[in-house]
Structures are given as C-alpha cells and as structure tokens.
Specification:
The complex is a heterodimer of chains A (about 500) and B (about 290). By secondary structure, chain A is α+β, with helices and mostly antiparallel strands. Chain A contains 17 helices and 13 strands. The longest helix of chain A is centred in the last third of the chain and has 30 residues. Chain B has a single domain, classed as Rossmann fold, CATH 3.40.50.12280. Chain B has eight helices and ten strands. In chain B, the strands form three sheets. Chain B has a five-stranded parallel sheet, sandwiched between helices. A three-stranded antiparallel sheet of chain B has the order 2-3-5, with no helix packed on it. The chains are: A alpha+beta (about 500), B alpha/beta (about 290). At the A-B interface, α3, α4, α7 and α17 of A face α1, β6, α4, α5 and α7 of B. The complex binds iron/sulfur cluster.
Chain lengths: ~500, ~290
C-alpha cells in the first residue's frame, strides 16, 4: 500500500472525512502508528501514519495518510471534526507530533509535566474557585480527577484528568501472539471484558478470513448480553445510591451479584473471561440450556419488578429528570455511542448496523431512541436494553438446547466450539457493542505477531461529553450525571 | 418510599454466613492454577505454556522441579488444559485462592525457607494488628486497575457479602483508615497519590495488594520481567523495590514498588470472598490455624 506522504494529504483527507460525516457517516476514531520500516522505504525513515475510522452503513472504513518522515506537525482534524478532540491529544501524547490548530493540546493519557499540575482556570470572575475531585475518590471508585470550576453551586466548567490510570495497553499488545492478545483485550476495560474480547477477535478473524461455528456465535451473544445486564443493573444501583434509596441500591446490588454468579456458573469466571478466543469460544457453557432458561426467568422477574418500582419512585425521577442533558445535536455531531447516544436520539448500535456472531440469525431490532437526553432518558434506554437482552438470552438458550441435541452436528463438524484461526499478517478493524457502546479494535499482524493494536472503548469516545452536560446543573447533580454515563475509566486511559 | 420499605422486608436473607459457616458459592468458580504433580517426566516447555511467566520448570538448584506463581496467574487455564497431568484449577476463594502474607507465599509449592518467612510475617502482622480496635476502617485506592477489581470490592458493601456485619467499614479519609486496599498494577500516574494516601494513614497500618495486577503487574508486566517465579517477589517489606517497567515504562510490576504490602491476594480479578478473606487476615480476625492464610 502506498500512501501519499505529505501534510497537504492530511488536509485533503480531513476535508473528505468532514464531508462524509456531514453526509451522515459517523467518526469512529483516529489513531497514529509508525509505519514499520520493512513495509515501506526504510531509507526514508519511519513515517507516522494517521488512520481515521468512519462508520458507514454495514462497515467501518479506514482512511489513512502518511506524514513525511520527521514531520513535527500536521493540520489538526479537530477544527473540522470536533469528535477528534481527545484522539488528537492522545496522538500528541504518544508521538509528540503537533496537530496545528488544535484548540487545547494538554496531555491527556500520559502523566503530565509539573506545570500541568497547576489548576487550570477557564472561567474568570470574582469568587471563582476550583474544586478537585480525585484522583483518589471518596468511596470505592476508579481513579480519575474532575476539576470543577465554580462560583458556588452552579457548575460552569468541568475539566477531567484521566491519565492517572494509563497502563500502556497499546504498547503491551506489540509482539504478542494473536492468541495471547485476547487475554489483554479482556483486561483493557474489565467490566466490558467480553465486548473487548469480541471486538479484538472479530479483527483477528477478519484478517484470517475465518468464521466461528454457529455454536460459538450463540455462546458469544450469551456472554455479551449477560455483561450488558450486569452493567446496566450496576448503573441503576449507583443511581439509586446517589439518590439515597438504600433499599433499592441494595436490591440492585443483589441482582448484579446474581448475574455475575450466573456468568461464573456458565464459564468459571464472573466476568466471562477466557470464553472468547480467536475463531470461536473455548468451551460449551457448563450449564444445561434448561437450567439457564430457569435462572434467566427468575432473574428477569426480579430485575424488572425492581426496575418498574424504581421508575415509579417520583423522588428518584425528580433527581434524574432534566439532569445532565446532552442535546441531540451534540450527540449527533459527536457520534455519541451506546445508551448515551440513544438517550439523545442518536442510535448507533454495532449489533444492528454491522451485526456479528449470532445477532443476525437472532433478528435483533434497534431499541427505541429517546430524545430528552437527560439522566432519566439514559436510564430508560438501559431498561429497554435489559428487556431486549433477556429476550435475546431466552432465544439463545433455546438455540443451545437445539445444538445440545446434535442438530448442528452436520454443519460444523460435531458442534465444534472454534474454527482454526491463526493468521500470519494483515490488518483489520473489529467491533462489538459493549454495554457502554461500540468498542473498536484496529489490529495489525506481522509474522503471526501483533505489530500494532489500537483498542478504542466507548468510554473513551463518550467521556469527553461530560464537558457538555452540566448546563445549569448544580454540584449535587454530579454523582447522578457520572453514574448515568456508566463509563469505565480503565477504558479511557488505556 | 413505603414501596421500597416493603420490598426491603421481602428481600429475605441473602447475606452469606461466611466465614462463620461455609458458603456453597465460595468455591463455586475457578481460582488460580495449582501444581498438582511434581513428578513430571518431561518438564520441558512447561514454562512456555503460561502467557504471564507464572510457571518455571526444572531450572535452578530448587529441589522442586515445577513451580507456579499464583501472584502472576491470570487464570487463563492454558496450563491445566495442556498438561492436566501437572496443573489444575484451584476452586474458589477459600481453598488455595487464599491470600498470602509474603510474596513468596503465592509461589507453589512452598520451599522450606518460604514457610519460615511466612511464620515470621504472621508474627509481625499479629503484633501490629493487636492494636486495632473492634471496628476497622478501610481506604481503597485504585492504582491502575482494569475496573473489574472495583466491582468486586464494591460487592463487599452490598447485602450479599455485607462486610459491615464483620465490623469492617470503608472510609473516605486516609486519616481514619487502618487498612489500605490497593487494586491495579501500579500505574506511574497513581504512584504519587497512592504513596500520599499511605503516608496520611496513622500507624498501625496494613496494606493489601488485591489481585494479580496489584501483586505482580499480571499480564501487563509479563515479558518485561521474564525471570520467572524464582526471582519474582521483590523484598516484600520495602517500598523501594520498584518493579520492572521495561517496554512501556508505564506500569510497575505491581504496587509493592510504591507501598509496602502485607497481604497478597491472587486472582484476575480477585473474588469478593478472596478480598474479604484478605481483609479479615489483615486485621487479625482469623484464628491462627485458619487455612485461608498462608
Ligand atoms: S496464567 Fe495461570 S492458568 Fe494461565 S497458564 Fe499461567 S499459571 Fe496457568
């Protein structure tokens, strides 16, 4: 592949990209990588290649441009496509290359220099002060720092420092075998282990040109949907806790524990780790489809009864209604993923737009989008998704009962759990719909080893939207807004 | 409001009686791998089975041919699958998934000198925890976790594990904390805040490293320190034994390079029972003959 090595190339590409997004495509990510010496002209030195991903119809398109070797900068994409704001800061952190015209090029994922630790101030005025929250938070929480600049009650500006947890995941992928890579993907964002494993494996399978057996597709959906239910119930527990509804919070905590125990009953791990492997799944569920159906029935009844009560508790609804609103225009412009987008009328769902594994055969329909974009709408979307997940799970359990009876024996060689999948070289994107929204992996293999792997969680893409949802809200709304986003910091600062 | 009051009553008893009475679920999932057979005809290639370098075989002056470092084990199961004659899953949190009082205590099988060191560590810990009052306060710090560890710690606060029944409480202020519970591999960004939290705590203080990431860096540091379990576990008493940070220079080999660790919990992530067990060990709530400590 030859790439035009020029800065004008970048400017031209951004124009094209912006035009596509204006026409309805969605910006899905921007990554940089040094072109490895032996795939280009080594004499010229390593060139930085920028790859922009665009979700369009049934696929993800990758558009790329190579900067001239040694280039100190390139024209920034962010002025044209605002959603690139954090992506370009990461590239600046990683490679030191300057996106010229970027509105705020402070360190994002790498631990900043000393002067960056002075509290920034964006809003001037008498009596303004900055309240830092974190990185060590009160309570059991992931490390992140929120700097709230406020004249008192209202929140005019929020600044986030996410670099504290940065673990160098991208770098760690390099040199791993395709089979080992999935173990790291499971640990990129631990509360969405299954979705990350799926997105990673879909990329590997696309490079290999292999497709998982039907049975594996079902087991994958089984674990992906249980992960979704656990996450959404967790959000409900945290919102109830923020509202001081101790009994409700406790009951949702019990339901979540039941989901995790069901997952461990199926595979041995409470987070579904070790299930998804390149080419399929590692084993059949350790539970009979009948027992699974029974437990699903009980669980759904218990969860939905409490969900209905919660949505009928007016003191609770009052705290969520109009809290942390994300406007539909902003959601669309940013390409807000998952429940956050769906609560603001923007419905990007990898399961229906670019379906994978058993989703096509299960006939999943998009969930109803809401328009109000407040914390209440985000919770309402989550309940719609939970109902849909239970419905999918029941169908999966029935299909699994069919495979146990040997009905699939003819089609995939006796109900095999995985197809051979050991690709040597190539590059592909893979995706999956995590509870937080679409997870995207861009994987490059050389000689059977990973030479580059960019994971992009929905948490990373969505967290930046916290800047835009505090209009008119007061400090006491903060826990509701944070919980209603339902993101994981681990997935942000990889 | 009355709606939830009624529901609360209908909740029934969901809280575990553990550790007073056994809990059927405590061993209901897979724990870190164990070595079940030392008499291996061909130990060659056993080390390569493990993606985190937890297994060493046949090397060195050790009398034991095969050793497995549960502090590095991320429960991928490859060893047990490829060589069921040598390795097996352990079951759950109260068997061999228990916490250890020294880093070496997680490396199986124990050497005679490990057992001595474990005895000494137990005596030191007992001295310190004797001063703790009846109710114990815990400060949790995420030192660069993958996020799942926080879920498992949060589970302890819910009705199923309900640590309040055992007189253990979480606190926001390090000045009121007796125990520092650390999750995550020890990212560079969290080194300062973690150290500051530790220093703000009054004596006596006990530090728990919860999970393979906190103990060794887990998969994140694997390959950066390929010396294997015989050299794993820097001096568990010293905060200066910073782990390897080779390739990415981002993650240390666990949190013991930042704060001095007293109790080491395996697991990826550690289970709620495993963390609960470690908390009880940390505050001297478990009898000496308790098999949950090693
Ligand atoms: S990580 Fe644990 S289970 Fe996996 S091969 Fe190593 S020792 Fe065995």
């Amino acid at each position: 592949m030859t790439l035009p090595a020029s800065e004008t190339g970048a400017a031209e590409l951004w124009e094209k990209l912006a035009a596509r997004i204006a026409a309805g495509d969605r910006f899905a990510g921007l990554f940089a990588a040094l072109r490895s010496p032996h795939s280009g002209d080594a004499a010229a030195g390593a060139a930085l290649v920028l790859s922009a991903h665009v979700a369009a119809g049934a696929g993800i398109d990758t558009m790329q441009v190579a900067l001239p070797p040694g280039a100190a900068g390139y024209p920034a994409l962010t002025p044209l496509v605002g959603a690139a704001f954090w992506y370009e800061r990461v590239i600046h952190d990683q490679f030191g290359v300057v996106p010229r015209g970027h509105p705020r090029l402070a360190p994002l994922v790498l631990h900043g220099s000393a002067e960056d630790h002075a509290l920034p101030r964006h809003v001037a005025g008498y009596g303004m002060f900055t309240i830092p929250h974190g990185p060590v938070r009160s309570g059991v929480m992931e490390s992140i720092e929120y700097l709230v600049e406020t004249p008192g009650e209202a929140i005019p500006h929020l600044n986030m420092r996410v670099f504290y947890k940065h673990r160098g995941i991208e770098k760690r992928f390099e040199g791993m075998s395709a089979a080992d890579g999935v173990l790291l993907a499971e640990r990129a964002e631990g509360i969405a282990s299954v979705a990350h494993a799926l997105a990673y494996c879909h990329a590997i399978e696309r490079i290999a040109g292999c497709s998982p057996p039907e049975l594996a597709g079902l087991v994958r959906v089984l674990h992906a949907e249980l992960e979704r239910i656990a996450n959404h119930v967790d959000v409900a527990a945290k919102l109830a806790d923020a509202a001081g509804l101790a009994v409700a919070a406790a009951r949702f905590a019990v339901h979540k524990e039941r989901v995790l125990r069901l997952v461990s009953g199926l595979c041995g791990s409470r987070f579904g780790r070790g299930v998804v492997v390149p080419g399929g799944v590692s084993a059949r569920p350790r539970m009979s489809p009948g027992a699974l159906l029974t437990e699903l029935g009980r669980l759904e009844k218990a969860v939905m009864a409490d969900a209905d009560s919660l949505m009928a508790t007016s003191s609770f609804l009052d705290r969520l209604r109009t809290t942390g609103p994300l406007t539909p225009a902003r959601a669309r412009e940013h390409g807000a993923l998952g429940p956050i987008g769906r609560a603001s009328g923007f419905s990007a769902d990898a399961r229906t737009e670019r379906p994978y594994d058993a989703y096509p055969s299960l006939g999943l329909l998009p969930v109803r989008a809401h328009e109000t974009g407040d914390a209440l709408a985000r919770l309402a979307v989550r309940w719609d998704e939970v109902v849909q997940s239970f419905d999918l799970l029941r169908r999966v359990a029935r299909e699994l009962a069919g495979t146990a009876a040997g009905e699939l024996a003819g089609t995939d060689g006796g109900g095999a759990t995985a197809a051979a999948c050991e690709p040597a070289a190539g590059r592909a994107a893979g995706w999956a719909e995590a509870p937080q929204g679409e997870v995207l992996y861009d994987v490059t293999l050389e000689d059977g080893r990973i030479s580059r792997c960019h994971p992009r969680s929905a948490s990373f893409h969505n967290l930046v939207l916290m800047h835009d949802v505090f209009a008119g809200d007061i400090l006491t709304d903060f826990p509701f807004i944070e919980a209603s986003f339902g993101l994981s910091v681990a997935g942000v600062a990889l | 409001m009355s709606l939830w009051a009624l529901r609360g009553l209908r909740n029934g008893v969901v809280t575990t009686k553990w550790p007073k009475r056994p809990d059927g679920y405590a061993d209901g999932w897979r724990g870190p791998a164990v070595v079940q057979n030392q008499d291996v005809a061909e130990p060659v290639g056993l080390g390569e089975l493990c993606p985190t370098g937890a297994i060493s075989a046949g090397a060195g002056a050790s009398t034991r041919a095969v050793r497995l470092d549960q502090g590095r084990c991320i429960l991928c199961g490859r060893c047990a699958e490829a060589r069921p004659d040598v390795f097996a899953w352990s079951a759950g949190a109260t068997g061999s998934d228990a916490a250890a009082l020294t880093r070496e205590g997680l490396v199986l099988p124990h050497l005679p000198e490990d057992d001595e060191a474990i005895g000494a560590a137990r005596a030191r810990l007992r001295e310190r925890t004797a001063a703790l009052r009846r109710s114990v306060h815990v400060r949790h710090v995420d030192g660069g976790s993958d996020g799942s560890e926080e879920w498992e710690v949060q589970a302890l606060l819910g009705p199923v594990y309900d640590i309040h029944r055992l007189g253990v409480f979480f606190t926001a202020s390090p000045r009121h904390a007796d125990v520092l519970l650390v999750t995550g591999a020890g990212s560079a960004g969290m080194a300062g805040p973690l150290r500051a939290t530790y220093e703000a705590m009054p004596d006596p203080r006990v530090v728990i490293a919860a999970g393979a990431d906190a103990v060794s860096g887990g998969l994140l540091s694997a390959g950066l320190n390929s010396a294997g379990p015989n050299s794993a576990g820097p001096d568990s008493a010293g905060p200066d034994s910073a782990g390897p940070d080779g390739g990415s220079a981002t993650v240390m080999g666990g949190v013991s390079g930042i704060v001095p660790v007293d109790v080491w919990v395996p697991g990826s992530p550690p289970s709620p029972f495993g963390i609960l067990n470690a908390l009880l060990i940390a505050v001297g709530r478990l009898a000496d003959d308790w098999k949950g400590a090693r």
